[in-house]
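Researcher: For the annotation table, I need structure tokens for D-2-hydroxyacid dehydrogenase family protein. Please keep the output clean. Sequence:
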Amino acid sequence: MLRVAILDDYQNVSLTLADWSSLGRDVEVVRFDHNLDRDDAIVSALASFDVLCLMRERMPLSAQVIARLSALRLVVVTGTRVRTIDMAAAAEHGITVCHTHAGESATATPELAWGLILSLARSIPEEDARLRQGGWQKTIGSTLAGKTLGLVGLGKLGARMVPIARAFGMDVIAWSPNLTNDRAAEAGALRVEKMRLFQEADVVSLHLVLGERSRHVVSHTELRAMKRGAMLINTSRGPLIDEGALLEALQERRILAGLDVFDQEPLPINHPLRAAPNTVLTPHLGYVTNGAYAAFFRDTVENIRAWREGKPVRVLAAPNRN
């Protein structure tokens, strides 16, 4: 019997979005609807599984955990980029790691970014809650027309922000470490230096890949350069922003923030961001759509089937043959 674990299926949809029975009668599929957030919990729950199906980066697999999962032979992770699996350790322990296509994530995440922007600009969550509690309007909103959107990162996701901003009548400026004037112009934006972007933008939206160079790309310096009342939007990765500096800016009510990602996920119940003013928070919903999930789980089943046939596809790490 091959045992397959589906991790972090918060919405309980994995078994309905793909034909898991196609893997054969000798396969047992077990889904987990909660996050395993400690090494001991991961090992205790998953020690008997041959295959782990991970949803993006929700559950990390460190070298220490991999070494303790003696039955593990295949890991399938959704999406095309993953930072939270120790690939070298997987290969060393004879484990194959495969990925899925990105699905519609490239459009879903920028759309959520605009949801956060509009929610902040018009205080939509706050007024919705007030209305349901028996109240009536209290806030005064702002329009986007004539304002400036600053994009930190102008890759596939960042570039999708540009035409939407133009539709709202916004100017668009952009910066990233390797961005050229020509590339920015091609995407419909004006390249500026980093500090100018934070000083001039009414909305700053982050679209960088997290790495050592980009960690805390938004620090005290950048936050203090922002206009009072400007918005900071993060649908990329939490550690792009210095969390302590952000909390300080929010407590002082200098800026507004729309956050879909955090340093620690799920966000702890007592985390100060949950009570911070001037915020709209969502629980990492950027890629969470019906279309993306359907593609993820169909590919996951295909990956398992191909691996069982000895012809793995979309391989990120292959077992060492030494």
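Researcher: And a one-line annotation?
Model: The longest helix spans residues 290-308.
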